[in-house]
Amino acid sequence: MKKTNANNVAHVLSEALPYLQNLNNKTIVIKFGGNAMIDENLKNSFARDIVLLKQVGVNPVIVHGGGPQIGKLLEKIGKESEFINGMRVTDSETMDVVEMVLGGQVNKSIVSLINKNGGHAVGLTGKDGSLIRAKKMHIKKNTPELDAPEIIDLGHVGEITSIDPSLVHTLDQGDFIPVIAPIGVGEDAMSYNINADLVAGKMASVLGAEKLLLLTNTAGILDKQNHVLTGLSVEDINKLKTDGTIHGGMLPKVDCALDAVNSGVKTSHIIDGRVEHAVLLELLTDEGVGTLIKN
Prior knowledge:
Layout: H1 3-23, E1 27-32, H2 40-55, E2 59-64, H3 67-76, E3 83-84, E4 87-88, H4 92-116, E5 121-125, E6 132-141, E7 150-163, H5 166-173, E8 177-181, E9 183-185, E10 191-193, H6 196-207, E11 211-216, E12 232-233, H7 234-242, H8 250-262, E13 267-272, H9 278-284, E14 290-294
Parallel strand pairs: 1-2, 1-11, 2-8, 5-8, 11-13, 12-14
Antiparallel strand pairs: 3-4, 6-7, 9-10, 13-14
Helix pairs in contact: 2-4, 3-4, 6-8
């Protein structure tokens, strides 16, 4: 290794030291999705990041999505995907596919990749140990012809009623890395498909996590000149929402990040999952690769 390269490595390791000290024995919840779940290099760099964090005393908890993979299998079996307000309408047949893809294919591939890189990952769905309790979600739609809002039934789409963290705590203390598919179980014993961002945010709150990381396909929260904003307070976020800087598909992620910091999580991070080793860069360097939100 050339001397200049060795010096660069030493500088990076030195820069990471205070961050590692601060994160020692702390829990961080990471929502894994977007390009990072599809690109092979990004998947492998993510797995290595997670194994390294566990090795140096951090407790990562992974919550993953899988919308594109679900859509692909539904298409293969000739079933059309229907969305209302960005949420997949999930009848019983679709729910079978969701469980097959999220709880089987996607979850096990993440677990295998982490284990291949030297970690000890354990795959879970929210049904295991009644980890995630849920109930049917109904959404309201205002229709001019009707006096009252129309209540729309999305089928097996759920919202969280409670999370029991005991199983995740047990795995963390046993040197395992939990990898959680966002499927909940209702009092009626029915399975429910839940938005992965919401599961990650709620999981971070219940676990008393130090940080919540949401991997996205954007550089973070951008101002109107497309510059990345970071170090934002709750007040800053509310102003950016009011003036329209934060809009569209970024709003649900920002609301999820806000809910987490308002519930005791120290910081939430919306980071660019298209960047190799994004998790380490955001957690262990001064510059980072996304937007930090703090209370």
